[in-house]
Specification:
- The chain has about 250 residues and is α/β, with parallel strands linked by helices.
- It has a single domain, classed as 3-Layer(aba) Sandwich (Rossmann fold).
- It contains 10 helices and 8 strands.
- An 8-stranded mixed β-sheet has the order 1-2-4-3-5-6-7-8, sandwiched between helices.
- Helix 3 packs across helix 4, helix 5 runs antiparallel to helix 7 and helix 6 crosses helix 7.
- The chain is globular and about 45 Å long.
- It starts with a strand and ends with a helix.
Length: about 250
């Protein structure tokens, strides 16, 4: 167990394996525990670093989440890299963590070797985001398996964390806040857009969106699975690990 300080609060992280540093960025209402399940697929080839963003998992709690949480979490990611002093690192961001990864690389391209952005909507939230979010969260709270997942990730106060996350996301959607704090076209870090065509948690035209983003980024790739749920990092775990390994090690040393 290890912590670093960010704006007067303690942020939890843990490490597995050794080699090229690779940071896993969890999605909304999740925590590093999810990524921990994947370590047998990555720890033999990478120094894997898992973070709990503030307000989640084993990190300090917050009074509320910013509607710009994916930018704030990008700053936490940057602070972690500076704390580790391990040179350039690669990022895997899944679901909400994908926006975090892109924002971090836009903010500090000097720190990042490659980015994998997995299972997210892209440049904007889908048109029915708020309606779908409310429906999804209501159903999840009434579902025993979902409640157990939240508690496993967050602990006994999981319901408050889920509610705060929902409030922040709804505000982000209502105010149509930009999801990236700098133009995507400014991204210099090589990026792989990854997902599944069957992912019901993402926009229905995910292939079109990914290809449009890739068309404006010369150092980009797209990999979409025909099958699998949300996110592809888990629903196609073994194949995803192979694709990510190849992508990262294709980049310049």
């Amino acid at each position: 167990m290890a912590y670093f300080e960010y704006q007067g609060k303690s942020v939890y992280y843990e490490e597995y394996g050794q080699g090229e540093p690779l940071i896993f960025l969890h999605g909304n209402t999740a925590s590093s525990k999810m990524s921990g399940l994947l370590m047998p697929l990555y720890a033999e080839k990478f120094r894997c670093i898992l973070i709990d963003f503030l307000g989640n998992g084993q990190s300090d709690r917050v009074e509320n989440f910013s509607p710009d949480m994916w930018y704030d979490e990008a700053l936490q990611t940057i602070a972690l890299v500076e704390h580790l002093q391990c040179g350039k690192v690669s990022l895997i961001g899944t679901s909400g963590g994908a926006w975090v990864a892109v924002n971090a690389a836009l903010e500090r391209p000097d720190l990042f070797r490659a980015v994998v952005a997995d299972s997210f909507d892209g440049r904007t939230l889908n048109d029915n985001f708020a309606t779908n979010l409310l429906s999804e969260r209501k159903a999840a709270k009434e579902d025993t398996q979902s409640r157990q997942f939240y508690e496993w990730c967050q602990g006994a106060d999981w319901e408050r964390i889920v509610d705060l996350d929902t409030e922040a996301l709804l505000q982000c959607a209502e105010e149509k806040r930009p999801l990236f704090h700098k133009p995507l076209e400014e991204l210099k870090t090589p990026i792989l857009f990854m997902g599944s065509k069957e992912d019901e948690s993402c926009r229905h035209n995910i292939e079109e969106e990914y290809k449009e983003m890739a068309s404006i980024l010369p150092r980009s790739s797209v990999y979409l699975f025909q099958n699998g749920g949300h996110p592809s990092l888990f629903s196609n775990a073994e194949k995803t690990a192979d694709v990510i390994y190849s992508f990262i090690f294709q980049q310049e040393q």
